[in-house]
Write a structure and sequence with these properties.
It is found in: Chromosome, Centromere, Kinetochore. Residues 37-118 form the BCNT-C domain. This is Craniofacial development protein 1. The protein is mostly helical and 118 residues long. Among the domains are: 58-87, no CATH class; 88-117. Helices cover 69% and strands 3% of the residues. The chain has helices spanning 11-30, 42-51, 59-74, 77-85, 90-116; strands at residues 33-34, 37-38. The longest helix has 27 residues, at 90-116. The N and C termini lie far apart (75 Å).
């Protein structure tokens, strides 16, 4: 079982509340009534519980959830944010290497073009 805390005004929270309302409004209507009192029938209730499908979580969602929980438990959220912003961050290093590669290509291109013109 996975628990997740979200802001009550977020889209996810609102959709969850809508689903809960649908489940609650659909459940009483499906139960048979006997002399005005709603009573669940034994076999259909058991089959409904057994046959109900659980929402499956993908591997990516599970990994993301595990990573978020790990960051919170270890208290490294701020440290990761600071580290990824600085010079030592992966994205910054990749951008630097791309700029260097592009600059090197331009230098080589200029040399080739200067040799071609008499």
């Amino acid at each position: 079982r996975v628990t997740k805390e979200v802001d009550s005004t977020s889209k996810e929270a609102k959709s969850f509340l809508r689903q809960q309302e649908k489940w609650q409004s659909a459940a009483p209507a499906s139960l048979p009534t006997v002399s005005g009192v709603r009573r669940p029938s034994g076999m259909s209730t058991l089959l409904g519980k057994i046959g109900s499908k659980k929402q499956k979580m993908s591997t990516l969602e599970k990994s993301k959830l595990d990573w978020e929980n790990f960051k919170e438990e270890e208290g490294i959220v701020e440290e990761l944010a600071i580290h990824n912003r600085g010079k030592d961050g992966y994205i910054e290093r990749k951008a630097f290497l791309e700029r260097v590669d592009h600059r090197q290509f331009e230098i080589e291109r200029d040399i080739r073009l200067s040799r071609m013109k008499p």
